[in-house]
Amino acid sequence: MKKGLLIIFSGPSGCGKGTIVQEIIKDENFCLSVSATTRQPREGEINGVHYQFLSREEFQSRIDSGAMLEYAQYCDNFYGTPADMVEKMRNEGKNVILEIEVQGALQVMKKCPDAVTIFVLPPSISELERRLHKRGTEAEEVIAKRIARAKEEIPLAENYKYVMMNDALETAVSDFYAIARAESQTYEANKEIIGEILSC
Ligand code: 5GP
């Protein structure tokens, strides 16, 4: 079986990457890695589904035991990707999506140079601010911190191979599928299969 892609999907908070990913994972060839975080659950968020919600001590002990593929501090909280499921799902042929911020993404790029990297841009900072207010999940001061962080993150799009604008959901979703389709047809992604064909 062909190994699934590892897709790093980043972009400022409020740019709509979560909505894009929810559409993408309706296709059973894709799955989303469930991150761990020390942030408090938002209304409706379920432990183990949206995040693994951990105390700071629990999060630190996961880091100490080497269980995190990457982790980063983002606006006063820690976020990290548990390593175990990522390899397991890829080996089952699934394309695994990491919806993570840039500092963590840079760590994964170093560890997994075959990762496909996509950065999502909002149409503008004012639109980002409008979306965060409309979402209504964060207090005013948290929104201000997230906007400040967005201004730091956007220049770091230079580390990503693909950059997409999310001004229309349908287009962003089809762009995502187009990237994944092309990336699964590179020579690198098919090297093992070629070896298997020749050995039969
Ligand atoms: P939120 O609090 O809005 O759910 O997430 C805040 C930011 O943390 C978002 O940019 C999100 O992509 C990022 N994030 C979520 N999970 C992880 C993770 O496992 N690692 C890293 N580095 N960032 C994450």
Write a brief structural summary.
By secondary structure, the chain is of the alpha/beta class. The chain is 44% helix and 20% strand. It has a five-stranded parallel beta sheet with strand order 2-7-1-8-9, sandwiched between helices. A four-stranded mixed beta sheet has the order 4-3-6-5.
Task: Give structural notes.
- The protein has 200 residues and is of the alpha/beta class.
- Helices cover 44% and strands 20% of the residues.
- The protein is built from eight helices and nine strands.
- It has helices spanning 17-24, 56-64, 83-91, 102-111, 125-135, 140-153, 169-183, 187-199, and strands at 6-10, 30-32, 36-37, 52-53, 68-74, 77-82, 95-99, 116-121, 162-165.
- The strands form two sheets. It has a five-stranded parallel beta sheet with strand order 2-7-1-8-9, with helices on both faces.
- Helix 1 (17-24) packs across helix 7 and helix 5 packs antiparallel against helix 6 (140-153).
- The longest helix has 15 residues, at 169-183.
- It starts with 5 loop residues before the first strand and ends with a helix.
- Guanosine-5'-monophosphate binds next to strand 5 and strand 6.
- The site of guanosine-5'-monophosphate has 13 residues, from strand 5 and strand 6.
